[in-house]
Specification:
By secondary structure, this protein is an alpha/beta fold. It is built from 12 helices and 16 strands.
Amino acid sequence: MPARIAVNGFGTIGKRVARAVKLQDDMELVGVTKTRPTYEASIANREGMPLYTLDEKQMKVMEEQGFRVEGVLQDLLTKVDLVVDCSPNGVGEENKKLYEEAGVKAIFQGGEEHGIAGLSFNAFSSYDLAQGRKWARVVSCNTTGLIRTLYPLDRMFKVEEAFAAIVRRGADPAEAKGSALNAVEPSLHLPTHHGTDVRTVLPGLNISTMAVKVPTTNMHVHCIHAKLRKKGVKTSDVLSLWDQMPRIRFVSGKHGIRTSGQIMEIARDLGRHSGDFAETIVWEDGTHIDGESLYYYQAVHQESDVIPENIDCIRSMMEMEKDASRSIRKTDRSLGIGK
């Protein structure tokens, strides 16, 4: 019997998670929630996703605007096994009380604190730990991107320490708010939270981070230095390791791919839905080892890289698949991502 899934919050991440759930043969999307009669609510109606609101007042407003609404969140929770909470940052703690009362499992996103679930999830390293759990938190887009490349490095070559300078997009493409049009904004709370967040998944990794916001909407770019304990590692060894990993994809400046905008053009050329690129993108010719120091650049599509992680997290929490690699392959095939 397919796992019955709800998505609470049908925004940038929520609509992508909902579409991904619909593509799984072992999951059923029972419903999604929206609080206002927005364009995204019309997408849910148009794509046949049962639409719910948080309360009856919202439901009345939606129906007056011509939307088909099935009920309120409490109704939806009686029909599902697990909720993927994609609410705005900081709302998850209040929602957790509702999920507890309804007796359903929940996955929270990286905008919530680690303590909300007690388990921060990445499919590479946390799949076994999430088996059968009631709560989990899929870490943020930047944290997901960092773990995908650092986790295999640490397993194979042992990372003594790592530093990442994160060049953050100022806003998502559809947002009207974000960084200033003609400014670079450094994060003045140092070191930034990204390294701490990585350690919620990889507690033994010695990593620190800094970040700046820039006036672009395409992607985040990471400039990473990792000091390796293993001696004699070559650049080709690192590239070969990453090439064997799912959800890591190479681009090359030699082939004309020098910017995040050009990477997103590849996603469109590949026919990715919404122009998404869920893999972590590594510049092959921007990777170099000098002695024990590894330097590399990678790009993260902030709207989509956590989507496959949510699907794998569902599968683990619902104990639908014991083996992480099989779940990852199944998810990637269904979403059309991979090398």
